[in-house]
Design brief:
8 strands, D-tyrosyl-trna(Tyr) Deacylase, Chain: A, about 20% helix, two-stranded antiparallel ribbon, alpha/beta
Amino acid sequence: MRVVIQRVSEAKVEVEGRITGQIGKGLLIFLGVGKDDDMKAADRYIDKILKLRIFADDMGKTNLSLNDVHGEVLVVSQFTLYADCRKGNRPDFINAGSAKQAEELYEYFLEQIKDKTGKVESGEFGAEMKVSLVNDGPFTIILDESLI
């Protein structure tokens, strides 16, 4: 998996002019599924994300987790996180998971993170989406297998 996490003060995703997910303070998570990913990998990422201390405490130090601040989550599926641009100028997505596998893991990810935290919203798998956000910080973290 590859995950881009942005700490936001607000975010929303629209499909064909309708809002499919909208949050206030929390995390916008772009989720890419690789061909070798499984539920065990999703569980590791969720555990790491929920324990990340990336919200400021009363002293301005990043000591608080998503649950500590009662933050919300917006998850957007993004297979383009698996773009391989090493050869030529056209990205190759050979390492991205199949659509079936990616959708199953995306849905699993949503269910699991919803069970472990508060408000969870989402984009629409496979749809052309418009994402709007106010990045708080800015504070952006990239996670992949080598970083968790």
